[in-house]
Amino acid sequence: MVKNPQIRIPIIISLGAIAGVLCRYYIGLWLLQNFKTQFPIDIFLINISGCFFMGFLSTILARKYPLHPELVLLLITGFLGTYTTFSTYELNTAVNLNNLSRDLLYWIGSPILGLFCLEIGIKLAQITLSIKSRS
Amino acid sequence: MKETYFFIALGAILGALSRYYLTLFCLNKWGNKYSYGTLFANLSGSFLIGFISTIIFYKIISLELQQFILIGFLGAYTTFSSYILDTSNLYREKRFMDAIFYGIGTPLIGFICIELGIISAKIYNSL
User: Fold this and answer.
1) Contact A118 B85 (CB under 8 A)
2) Whole-angstrom distance, CA of residue B70 vs CA of residue B81
3) Which chain A residues touch B88 with a CB distance below 8 Å?
């Protein structure tokens, strides 16, 4: 394959980014069609699920594959970095502002639940690793 | 639109690569005490989404270009999961004040950046 890191790295990130954006777009569409709500459920669920995977994958990759930085570029920088988004999260909060309690729940709830899901991901990865190392 | 996936994928490639090289640039320039790259990407991305989503009201921009910029480029350029991971890492390193400032500061300043973007777009339109 392509050996030159100047070309190899952007290709790896791009592949992750393509998968990430398509997941965000189509999962978002599906969520909006299935949950008829004024709450921006699509970006909310995508961001907190992304945080869960971030906790899980970053722990697994750091412990199990420390010598494979390309997996980090593909899965963390490319895929999860693109799957989750900050700009739309802020835009949803700033533009609506007609139902203050809902917007505050979304605005403050996203990072708090995100942190919570990240920690669950990390714990789950640690449990997975300890089961694997025992067997 | 059938070709949606093409435009958002193209935008996402550019967005993710911009974020990556910005992060590298910040790492070389200011070190790794804070993740300046992610912070700067999130804040500048917030400003841009405020600006562009407002401009759309005034100027006719094709749906493909909107999706390319808003869902593809800006969606990929900014990231929520790294912001949360960085906050959690600051906490884990026992830098509690930094974790609180970064965790609360990013959405708060991001909100201000969006409003600045919206105001800039309105000023730009009235020129």
Assistant:
1) yes
2) 18
3) 55, 115, 118-119, 122
